[in-house]
Specification:
This protein is of the alpha/beta class and 567 residues long. It folds into 4 domains: 1-58, Alpha-Beta Plaits (2-Layer Sandwich), CATH 3.30.70.20; 59-318, no CATH class; 347-416, no CATH class; 417-503, Beta-Lactamase, CATH 3.30.450.20. Helix content is 43%, strand content 14%. The protein has 20 helices and 16 strands. The strands form 5 sheets. Strands 13-12-16-15-14 form a 5-stranded antiparallel beta sheet, sandwiched between helices. The chain has a 4-stranded parallel beta sheet with strand order 6-5-8-9, sandwiched between helices. Strands 7-11-10 form a 3-stranded parallel beta sheet, sandwiched between helices. The longest helix is centred in the C-terminal third of the chain and has 62 residues, at 505-566. The chain is elongated.
Length: 567
């Protein structure tokens, strides 16, 4: 399962995650951002800046609760930055709260840090490396493995404090003990998977939510059998320069010690070492600005104080003198070696001709077209073109190009539509109009600012003002030229209006002509019918007279014939 998970329905094409990603390990397909796991270094920036909260961190909380329900022996390795995550709370109070949740024991990860510093000191004293790059930050380790494989020999082949402490805890509590690391780091989850030494990782925000659900108030807890560590200087690990301070100057003779925090700065330093062949440095690299007290989980944690207060809390905690029983794992020693193989994958590189072709497809043919605005998430248009070639981006991500294209399309439609379009301000004065409006109303630049009622029929505007409903396809006559039109009035943002006018004068004249022809045809047909009726009546009258005369003649003839018989 991916450590950084996406809620696809919430991604809104803002490209903010790509813009913030130092290694550009985010691709964009089907209107969705997707994490490229093979390229991601788990710095967590994308989870913090997503405006839709579309990126979530995979949680081990259910797994931890299940282990506790099965009554397994689960031991906590508590990162020293807890002192900033739970301001005002002591190690004893946080330990007491964790023990109430069911954990078997709680110890400080800084115990492992002590052994790590000893291993670093041994490497520095032997002068076996040109530079020594610390391996306490899993994100920095991933960065070197994936993007600077040529610098792998300069990584300290030493386990991180969390992994080192996990080994010590198993030595102290038994091989069957489960180890749960609690801290501010996302990439610790990947380190747990890769090392196999850590069974689960919880972040401070998850722990705080768990305390709330269980009704545990950390400030009112205590643990009489809590065992704070003795070598307290290792508690400085979570602040910039803290690792260097744990190695005495006499043990790093011949090396210049520098602490760098922030992934962008770490990348620049690694580039300098690779390209300029710099040597003689002890490099404490931390991917998070302000080091671990500025970790991703600390930003989400609603009780975390500012960096200055956090740093002061860490320094105060490191100066605290401890008494009582020593933690079980602190006096122990385990092998500290670790291997960090290359995870680099070579990406295809387009030719200059292929880059130029991609740039031309988004209207970039000259240096002046290369805006390098960063709206797509990439620093330069060239970087974006390379990402398109590699299938990580698409041309539609260029916002200036898409805006220019949309404006061009819109202008083409506006310039060629046969309907007159007139925009009005909140006082119903003319703001703008298209060429069809010029032809229909003989408008010119001087008409801008004039009252629309001089040209248009605005009788139906009250309908919009009263009901909020637009007026559509109203047949009316214009205030000028007495044209018959079909008019729509549409309410726009900022109390502006768009009037769409379709000239139907020719259509109206055609309808009137057809109506006249229909009336004339009906009148002609009625006249013919009337005449036919008169003719029929006259014929009937004539037929009646003729029939009467014929009947009389025939009767007379019959009588004559009858009289002849009597003779």
């Amino acid at each position: 399962m991916s450590i950084i998970q996406l809620k696809e329905a919430d991604c809104r094409n803002c490209y903010k995650c790509i813009r913030s990603c130092p290694v550009k390990s985010i691709t964009f397909h089907d209107d969705q951002a997707r994490i490229l796991e093979d390229e991601c270094v788990l710095c967590g920036k994308c989870t913090l800046i997503c405006p839709q909260n579309a990126k979530q961190i995979a949680s081990d909380l259910d797994s931890v609760r299940a282990m506790l329900e099965r009554r397994e022996r689960v031991v906590v390795s508590l990162a020293p930055s807890f002192i900033a995550a739970f301001p005002g709370c002591t190690f004893e109070q946080v330990s007491g709260a964790l023990l109430r949740l069911g954990f078997a024991a709680v110890e400080e990860t800084a115990i492992g840090a002590t052994r790590v510093s000893e291993a670093y000191a041994g490497i520095l004293q032997n002068h076996t490396q040109d530079n020594l790059i610390t391996t306490c930050c899993p994100t920095v380790v991933l960065l070197v493995q994936k993007y600077f494989p040529e610098l792998l020999p300069q990584l300290a082949h030493v386990a991180s404090p969390a992994v080192a402490h996990a080994k010590l805890l198993r030595e102290a509590y038994g091989k069957d003990a489960k180890v749960c690391f609690i801290g501010p780091c996302i990439s610790k989850k990947q380190e747990a998977r890769d090392s196999g030494e850590i069974d689960a990782v919880l972040m401070f925000g998850e722990l705080n939510d768990w305390f709330r659900r269980e009704g545990i108030d950390v400030e009112h807890q205590s643990a009489k059998d809590a065992r704070p560590m003795r070598h307290t200087i290792s508690r400085l690990y979570p602040v910039p320069g803290g690792i260097i301070k744990t190695i005495p100057p006499e043990q790093r003779t011949g090396y210049t010690a520098i602490a760098i925090d922030g992934l962008d700065r770490c990348i620049r330093v690694l580039q300098d070492i690779r390209d300029s062949h710099i040597s003689g440095y002890l490099l404490e690299l931390s991917s998070c600005v302000d080091s671990c007290v500025g970790g991703p989980a600390m930003h989400e944690y609603d009780r975390a104080p500012s960096f200055l207060l956090s740093k002061e809390a860490v320094y105060g905690f490191s100066r605290r003198e401890e008494a009582g029983a020593q933690p079980q794992s602190e006096p122990l020693h385990v092998p500290m070696g670790a291997e960090y193989p290359s995870l680099h994958s070579e990406e295809p590189m387009p030719t200059e001709e292929e880059i130029a072709a991609i740039l031309r497809s988004i209207g970039k043919v000259s240096p002046s077209d290369m805006l390098n605005c960063g709206g797509c998430g990439y620093d330069t248009c060239r970087e974006k073109a390379i990402a398109v070639y590699r299938g990580k981006a698409n041309v539609r991500m260029c916002l200036p190009y898409m805006r220019q294209r949309a404006e061009s399309t819109a202008n083409t439609i506006l310039d060629n539509t046969p309907n007159a379009l007139i925009s009005l301000d909140h006082e119903l004065r003319i703001l703008d109009f298209n060429p069809s409006a010029v032809r229909l109303f003989n408008l010119n630049h001087d008409c801008i600012g004039m009252e629309a009622s001089l040209f248009l029929n605005m009788d139906k505007l009250s309908t919009i003002l009263e009901t909020g409903e637009n007026v559509m396809n109203e047949r009316c006559r214009t205030a000028i030229y007495d044209l018959m039109v079909e008019q729509s009035i549409i309410s726009m943002p900022n109390h502006e209006y768009l009037v769409i006018v379709k000239d139907i004068s020719v259509e109206e004249e055609s309808l009137q002509a057809m109506e006249k022809m229909r009336r004339e045809t009906l009148e002609t047909a009625q006249a013919v019918i009337d005449k036919q009726m008169r003719v029929a009546q006259e014929i009937a009258s004539l037929l009646g007279e003729t029939t009467g005369e014929t009947k009389a003649a025939l009767l007379h003839l019959k009588a004559s014939l009858n009289g002849g018989e009597r003779l």
